[in-house]
Amino acid sequence: MAVYAVGDIQGCYNSLKKLLKKVKFDASSDTLWCVGDLVNRGPDSLKTLRFLKSLGDSCICVLGNHDLHLLELAAGGLKYRRDSLEDVLDAEDCDELIQWLRFRPILYHDETMQWTMVHAGLHPNWSLKKARKRARKIEAQLQGNEWKEFCRQLHHVKFPIREPKKADPTRLLFATAVFTRTRYCTSDGLFNWDVRTGESSNYRDRAWYAHKRAKWHKQTHVVYGHWAAKGLVKDQAHVLGLDTGCVWGNRMTLAKLKKCGGFKIVAQVK
User: Fold this and answer.
1) From 87's CA, which of 38, 94, 98, 117 has a CA 20 to 30 Å away?
2) Which residue positions does the secretion signal occupy (predicted)?
3) Which residues, in sequence order, are CB contacts of 70 under 8 Å at separation 6+?
4) Whole-prediction pTM value?
């Protein structure tokens, strides 16, 4: 029995299947963790969703920003120029796939493995307990009757750069951005949503996982995706970054996770 984690798939179905074939993945005994961004930009978002859904409990997916964008489109939201999601939206089983996607977690934690999975990152001032609490509130929103209105808010929204107070209606949007869009922030939780590639010019900014006193550091190890510009991040004490940019012509990466933060990169394919 093995637990594998795969980087951002983004509709690259053939690459995913090649990876799983390389390790002889067996859905009857193995588990596949997907770090989010299952769809978009790649050629086969529909095949990817259908396949992952068919794996049942053998597949655990967290939601990424592109997955939330698909939910937004299903809710009547606006398209981006480079979207490649028409095959999902036009499919006869679209409603079933959207329903399945809505009920995927924002954060997944395995107590036995001592691994936590999110798409992009965590707040340096959040403990694991606080992060899980924030994630549950987002999940409740996505699974509730007002999910469409919530998802439509995510399009071109100006996310707060610091966590708002409890009564602020943008607090949930901020938490969503932390989990699905984070790259750079300061040690006291000031988030930079503007830098997507290259280094931040703010001397206080660090990669979200690089703040030495982050509260979650002593509580878990984190596997994540989202940051293709960083590529494979495997030299940090507390995290494993798996977005190696397959959709941009690079490779898709599969890691075998072990207890207490251990891992091994077992396969990479184009």
Assistant:
1) 117
2) none
3) 39, 40, 45, 85, 88, 98, 101
4) 0.97
Residue position matching structure tokens 């932390």: 178
Domains of the chain plus CATH, in order, are: 3-269 (3.60.21.10)
- 191-213: average pLDDT: 92
Tokens of 216: 């979650």
Over residues 169-188, the pLDDT tens digits come to 999 999 999 999 999 999 99
Task: Name the burial class of residue 140, with classes exposed (0-12), middle (13-18) and buried (19+) by CB atoms within 10 angstroms of its CB.
Answer: exposed
Q: What is the pLDDT of residues 220-253, one digit of tens each?
A: 999 999 999 999 999 999 999 999 999 999 999 9
- Please give the structure tokens belonging to residue 223: 């596997």
Alpha carbon separation from 183 to 17, 22, 121, 207 (Å, rounded): 29, 31, 7, 6
Strand segments, DSSP code E, in the chain are 3-6, 31-34, 59-61, 108-110, 115-117, 184-185, 191-192, 206-207, 221-224, 239-241, 252-257, 263-269
- What is the C-alpha to C-alpha distance for residues 144 and 249, in angstroms, rounded to an integer? 37
Mean pLDDT of the chain: 96
Closest CA to 131 of 190, 176, 82, 93: 176
